[in-house]
Amino acid sequence: MKKPVKVAITGAAGQIAYSLIFRVASGSMLGPDQPVILQLLDIPDSLEKLKGTVMEIDDCAFPLVSGVVATADANEAFDGTDYALLVGARPRGPGMERKDLLSANGAIFVPQGKALSDNASRDVKVLVVGNPANTNALIAASAAKKLDPKQFTAMVRLDHNRAISQLATKTGTSGNDIDKVIIWGNHSATQYPDISHTTIGGKPAKSLVSQEWIEKDFIPVVQQRGAAIIKARGLSSAASAASAAVDHMRDWALGTDGKWVSMGIPSDGSYGIAPGVVYGYPVTCKNGQYEIVQGLSVDEFSRARMTVTETELREERAAIEDLLK
Ligand code: NAX
Fold first, then answer.
1. Cα–Cα nearest to 47, from 9, 92, 12
2. Which of 44, 83, 223, 257 has the most CB atoms around it within 10 Å of its CB?
């Protein structure tokens, strides 16, 4: 058996975590031979509820769980952390403007970025799930002075998986046959799900679906899927979000074997995107590192949509500029 690694999960008493913790504990994220120490963080008011989740973790008698910490202290939760999944965030309240939402989340992600910088493993991999995920990742990365911003990523994998599922349903194929789907930009309604380079069973996806379907159905359905789930369930996506978080971290840690996945990562200027903003890109992962898929052609249709979502991220960054010192 390998030496245990430490996995921190914030928002640990919430609904995504209620699915995520058990997937991580069962080995879905880091493999069936990798023991984990779970470091669960929530706010003081939620600790009683978190106690119940910890009781359930105990009751599963997971062979891979070597320890569980439940705390409201970020320094304790991130002590030696190898993988941090930042799920807890401040939801948008009634009448709250985007700027207020961004600042309210700044109050969470600045201290958490600092706590990671001071306490986590120097190789920590951070995934931000809590919304607005891309800009929260930017805020945390900027506050983590002793870590490399590249260690901070945001989740667009749920959107990526949703795009694969829509395409599989439309073409009567299996998601396994679908390659090279891209989510560009922000995890928001401006995201651009792009199938320009996608293949299905080796054939170009665009030869199997119409441009009209892409524009009128596929793109808006993927962009609005979160809202459709809330309408149907009365609650936001939880199990699928947890599953996407597991996919994101697993692929980053264990590699994608050449397969493309979408990750929100600090832009290095690739594809003309403003450097620094945390933008969804197509990447491959190997040896614990991600690398942007380079050299793709970008037509006018794609460029216009990539710019819309980039503009939103630049505006989000401008709204919290004072937090990025
Ligand atoms: P819940 O409201 O069920 O749980 C959130 C938990 O976070 C609560 O237990 C709360 O006490 C805790 N929390 C609040 N502030 C905290 C802090 N400073 N430190 C630690 N914990 C804190 O929300 P849930 O449904 O689990 O969603 C969590 C976040 O994921 C939300 O921001 C949501 O918008 C976001 N999502 C992101 C997705 C993505 O694809 N990136 C998709 C799903 C989801 O909408």
1. 12
2. 83
Measured CA distances, 11 to 3, 72, 91, 161 (Å): 26, 10, 12, 23
Distance from chain centroid for Cα 25? 19
Q: How many domains does the chain have?
A: 2
Judge contact between 125 and 253, C-beta under 8 A: yes
Ligand 1 centroid from CA 121, angstroms? 24
Atom of ligand 1 nearest to the CA of 158: 40
Burial 100-111 (b: 16+ CB within 10 A, else e): ebbbebbebbbe
ipTM for this model: 0.98
What's the rounded Cα separation, in Å, for the pair 102 and 93?
12
Instruction: Give the nearest ligand 1 atom to 16 CA.
Output: 26
Give the ranges where 127-283 is alpha helix by DSSP (H).
Answer: 133-143, 157-171, 211-213, 219-223, 225-233, 239-254
**319 three-state secondary structure:** helix
Band (pLDDT 50/70/90 cuts) for residue 142 is: very high
Which of 16, 21, 103, 116 has the most ligand 1 atoms within 8 A of CB, as the residue to mutate? 16
Average the pLDDT over each of 31-40, 92-101, 142-151, 310-319 and give the range with the smallest value.
92-101
Predicted TM-score (pTM) of this structure: 0.98
Q: Pick out the residues of the known binding site for substrate.
A: 92, 98, 131, 162
- Whether residues 125 and 171 fall in one domain: no
